[in-house]
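Re: beginner question about structure tokens

> Can someone show what the tokenized structure looks like for a real chain? I only ever see the sequence side.

Sure, here's an example I had lying around. Input first:
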Amino acid sequence: LMNNPAVEPDDLGAPHRAASWRRATEYGGAILVAHDTSEFSYAGEAEREGLSRRGEHQSFHGHFALALAEGEAPVVHGVVGFGAHVIEDGVWLRAIPDRTFLELLVGSERWSDLAAEVRRDAPPGQQIIHVMDREADDYPLMTRLIRQGDDFVIRGLHDRSLMDQEGKLFSALEQTPFSISRTVTLSRRSKRRPPGSRRTHPPRDQRPANLSIRAGRVEIKRPQGVAPFGEPSMILSVVEVVEIDPPEDATPIHWLLLSTLPVTTAEEVCRIVDIYRKRWLIEEFFKSLKTGCAAEKRQARSLWSLLNTVTLLVPIAWRLLLIRTLASCDPTAPAADILDEVELQALRHLARGVKLPLKPSRQQVLLAIARIGGHLKSNGEPGWLVLGRGLERLLDFTEGWRAAMGFAAGVGGAQA
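And the corresponding structure tokens:
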């Protein structure tokens, strides 16, 4: 299956994408789509066809689009887009279905290409809000998103020129007073991440943060190097978020957010901030995929077989992320929304020594899954590794359980 040239990652991922869109539309409201890229690195001296080499490692870059629900609860609908790229001599190359590569004019094209695929597959008329980090502060990308009828919240990077004003974006924003104060909880960032990710998003513990916020509308000018693509200017909302009195050893929050969404009220401004705060879920997805599902430990020998492998791991990584985030958000809530009845029966059988009540909570189910993955209470909170092992065992066992139930029902029907 993994090495069969007739098997394509796009076909393998189609059922999960369709189910993700179905979950998203059934949930209702705007659909947030968080985008980001993560490098998948493989050690070893043996050459893997199609991967780029960096020292003793070979790698490819996976660019993902993760559908999320808007609101306080960290509801993850699933992966609705995935593209694979390698970098050779500083040039981004996209892997395409005929097992060759398409050279991108600029690396940022991967963002617009995937956003176009997301819009193509989305239900007609559905509001999509793309959520992206600083690398996506790109005028052509924002132009394409607006043209395809989508909204976005993108963290700003560039001090852009403004229409009909001598100053630039940063100095113009300084003329707007801070008018909103909020306290939010910042998610934890692990130290075990690639060096580039640690530089742009330093490690931190989970902590409360006091934020001061200001917002306005600006008309940014098209950069000279972009012309004649796109309109000469675009009007955007800009929201600046600054942390007040951060801990001495912490990197203070400072976000500059660009958006197509309105900022006429405090509620609308806070909505943009809350949408951007959801972006951390795609970072957690990468941990689930790489650590929980051991995506970088797989021994496939070519880019194409690795892509098939990663695509098959995506639904498991999504499920693992959903279980962990919902259990963290509301640990005492019933577990019926993360496991079905057959999975609960299988979990009771596998998790020997763990007493699950008739209607277990999310946290109780999480700990039981971790237990069958080898977690010990003395080790503290379960991590991605033991949760991934436990969920893999549970899903395999459940499939056997369902098959046995189907066989028993068939035998019973035949005897009747």
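Each token stands for a local structural state, so reading them left to right follows the chain. The first strand starts at residue 31 and ends at 43.
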